[in-house]
Amino acid sequence: MKQYIDDNKERFFEELFSLLRIPSVSAKKEHKADMRHCAERLAVLLMEAGADEAAVYPSDGNPVVFGKKTIDPKFKTVLVYGHYDVQPPEPLEKWDSDPFEPVIKKDPTGRDAIYGRGANDDKGQLFMHIKAFEYLLRSGKLNHNVKFIFEGEEEISSPSLPAWVRANKSMLKSDVILVSDTTMISEKVPSINCGMRGMAYLEVTLTGPDKDLHSGHYGGTVANPIQTLCDIISSLIDKDGRVTVPGFYDDVVELSRSDRAQLARAPFDMKEFKSSVGVKALRGEKGYTPLERIGIRPCLDVCGIWGGYTGEGAKTVLPSVAHAKISMRLVPNQSSAIITRLFKKHIEKIAPKYCKIEVKPCEGGEGFLIPISSPAFQAASKAMTEVYGIQPVPSRGGGSIAVLADMQKILGVDPLLMGFGLERDTIHSPNESFLLKQFFAGMESIAKFFEYYDN
After folding, report:
1. Number of neighbouring beta carbons within 10 Å of residue 157
2. Which of 152, 363, 383, 420 could disulfide-link 62, Cβ–Cβ 3.0 to 4.6 Å?
3. Strand, coil or helix: what is 426?
4. pLDDT band at residue 335 using 50, 70 and 90 as cut-offs
5. Over the stretch 77-132, which tens digit does the pLDDT of each residue have?
């Protein structure tokens, strides 16, 4: 496929950039028309690549793109999943270029990369599948049936897709769900995710007095909601880095020594890791390595906290209300619904009587695991070994794609995560990018996966 990429890369860039220019931000209602526009553009690209059919389907939320190519009903069917929605680009002042005007330029290490929102997550990565499919079809090497499902709500936890999948179960019948929406350990050490964590995400609101008060007249007498909320939050993790919510670990399955040893094959440079995020030391659950804390252990994090006056200058106010957004990453076998209930019960119990506390569930989803002995995993391993010259390491992803657990359950088919992103891509931050080296290697690896995934 190297020659095909070289002969067509300028066209590939033009087509991908046509997607990246569309501000398909699912978190903002004002981008509703952009979501439709992006879905329609994807359907056109699928048809141009050679799909038998591709159309935009309505859902209870943003539209779903479905396309397919049938080579022989007797052949195995690969269902390619991806999402065309992207994270909000803010803060805009942190971008070196317009987030929705993609460019190819040198990164700080001197390597060529595509810059723009969605360059990696997930427009760039799903686009690799369209082009690998195009190559296989035009070269007469496609010996599988291929289906595509692209959604527009992954960045807001896919609230509409499970129902759509359930309603169209027969249309989505397949043998494996192929996904590129994750990162590799490094470009020198490729990896294939064999599992991802689930998530429970909540918003906590704590109310004290019925209005903002003068901090000079009331400070030291009336409890400050921000300080009270901080006290509550600080109690949620103990000195050993364990979450203190009763029952939080009840359903966590402890990995065997052999499983931990297998995951430990992944190289980890402590100094490099700390340097990459600008910290001098790491913190986490006692008794586990940093990679284990990310992949096989649950955790709790405060994603945002606010209240009172935060504008320019001083305003001596004792605020009436304080808020926090809290996420809990969950491992397979933990239920997001159960954890949400346990968290709510616990925080309501420990809240002082001089305040009122409200817990509002925002998002939730389950984690999943796949066997590394499966034919699909082995095919992916062979493909990436050939492209990268080194056998990929099985890994566990710390992030969440909750809808894949839903699809696994509804369709009875395992997902396979062949991700080609890198941590340097800063996918949810300003200056998101995707190395051209990885972009091209991804296309090659996907094409070779089909070669090794036997019918």
Report:
1. 19
2. 152
3. coil
4. very high
5. 999 999 999 999 999 999 999 999 999 999 999 999 999 999 999 999 999 999 99
Tens digits of residue pLDDT in 7-47: 999 999 999 999 999 999 999 999 999 999 999 999 999 99
8 Å CB contact between 42 and 102: no
Provide the pLDDT confidence category of residue 259 given band limits of 50, 70 and 90. confident
pLDDT band of residue 254 (cuts 50, 70, 90) is confident
Sheet arrangement for strand 321-330: 299-307, 321-330, 198-207, 356-365
Domain locations along the chain: 2-196+367-452, 198-252+298-365
Cα–Cα distance measured from residue 387 to residue 154, given in angstroms and rounded to the nearest whole number = 29
Residue with tokens 């921000």: 226
* Ramachandran area for residue 29 (φ above 0: left; ψ -120 to 50: alpha; else beta): alpha
- Please give the Cα distance from 438 to 421 (Å, whole number): 7
Beta bridge partners of residue 140, listed in sequence order: none
Q: What are the tokens at 123?
A: 């427009």
| Domain 2-196+367-452: top CATH class | alpha beta
Nearest-angstrom CA–CA distance, 2 and 16: 18
Q: Distance between CA atoms of 166 and 169, rounded to whole angstroms?
A: 5
Taking domain 198-252+298-365, whether its CATH number is 3.30.70.360 is answered by yes
Lookup: tokens for 112: 């060529």
Beta bridge partners, 113, equal 105, 435
